[in-house]
Amino acid sequence: MGKEHLARDQEEKVNELHWEIQQWKSNFRFIDDEIMFITHLLDSYIFEPNTPNLFERLQNYKARLKKLKSTKAKLQSQISIQENNLGGMLECTENTSDLEYCNKHEKLQTLVDDCISKFQELKSEIFNYAGGILKKRKPNGH
């Protein structure tokens, strides 16, 4: 009975970790879409051209987005490795490897959360800035 209980606990833990990994992957897919939109926004010609430091500000945002994309790509690679290693937890009977995996998982969770948080801050900053300098369309003479 004891081994069955441990196996069930381990299976539940693996399922929980797998679910978290799927959430990370899903969040990064949404971020990919948002980055694409923001990039199009920053490359568009919808901003008031006489805005002070417009070019410099847009270049800064683009550079920060590029750095964030690089960080996200590295994390996605680590997530894939972590996901592949997850299957080994069910086969392994040593608690030390489970603990090591869980520690890596928690560290990765912290990095993922940090990346998402930094993206949310950058996105908010860009939208707040862009919202104030969009060209105002004049209505047709109606």
User: Total strand count, please?
Assistant: 0
Order of helices and strands: HHH
Report low-confidence residues grouped into runs of 5 or more. none
Could you describe the largest sheet, including whether it forms a barrel? Answer: none
Our Rg estimate from Cα atoms comes to 22 Å
Ends: how far apart? 81 Å
Structural class of the helices, strands and pairings?
A: mainly alpha
Averaged pLDDT, please? 89
Domain module tally: 1
Beta-strand percentage? Answer: under 5%
Number of helices: 3
> How much helix is in the residues?
over 70%
Overall morphology: elongated
Please explain how this structure is put together.
With 142 residues, the protein is mainly alpha-helical. It has one domain (2-35, 54-133). Helices cover 84% and strands 0% of the residues. It is built from 3 helices and no strands. It has helices spanning 2-43, 54-91, 95-133. Helix 2 (54-91) runs antiparallel to helix 3 (95-133). It is elongated and about 75 Å long. The model has no long low-confidence stretch (mean pLDDT 89).
Topology, element by element:
Layout: H1 2-43, H2 54-91, H3 95-133
Helix pairs in contact: 1-2, 1-3, 2-3
In a few lines, what is going on in this structure?
With 142 residues, this protein is mainly α. Helices cover 84% and strands 0% of the residues. It has one domain (2-35, 54-133).
Give the key terms.
142 residues; elongated; mainly alpha; 3 helices
